[in-house]
Amino acid sequence: MAFTLGYSTYALKMVDPFDAVRLIKDVGYDALEVCAAEGWPSAPDHFTASQQSELGKLSQDLGFSSPILFALIDVCAPQSDRIKMLELTKKKFEMIQRMHYDDSPMLITTTPGHSAPPWESGKEQIRDAFLSLADMAAENDIIVAIEAHAGTDFEAPEKAVWMMEQTKHPNLKLDLDISHFVVEGSEMVHSVDLCAPHSAMVHIKDGEKVDGQVEFCLPGDGGIDIPGFLTALRANGLEDMPVFAEVSVQQSREADYSPRGAAEFCYNALDKAGNSIS
User: Which are the contacts of 271, defined by CB distance < 8 A and separation ≥ 6?
Assistant: First the structure.
């Protein structure tokens, strides 16, 4: 079985959302992730309900499965900001529901958010915040996939698995974004083996730490062994999950960034890797 490749409008902030979805299909991707993060043109605080429905219809007409939502919720928002966070989360939940049209899970992904406390002193607080979000997701038939993130305290596969073992909530899974683990020094296959049983989706970019700072790059432009990663996914029974190429804002904010060029580079790198192990 060949891997399905996906791409996110997270990489296409400067492109109209409808044009972005067409670009993703035209490059060759078969899976779609729509960015609902604040500041993106498809964020639900200004991308209207009718536009969301139209984007879902376009996705369906182009032959994609129902999109995943790149939600980026500030899960651990303090009490002073919590009502605002919950209202925005509700809008994101409604957005994924409007864009859903098949029997795949309604899936959103998020990190713990910028308000997350330090891990050692606050991991129970993070756990409880995710449990609260998962209960809200369950009421809406949505699965939340947690993404660990390099450069934060929630950056290791062992911590991601701890979160799964502590929550044991059917609406709470992992987004297996291998780049964050590898950048922070975790071994790739070990990371996949640990996280695979809890994972609902897969991301990949690349990068390294330079003088303590995370520097991301496009998948295929760094040191991650992509064929080895895909082989590890296959060995763990995750071959049926789309592999989403992700482009960091470290690349997409550069003046010479090419939205289509980046999408094509990622597709070619992942397609070549998939062909090499098929």
Answer: 5, 28
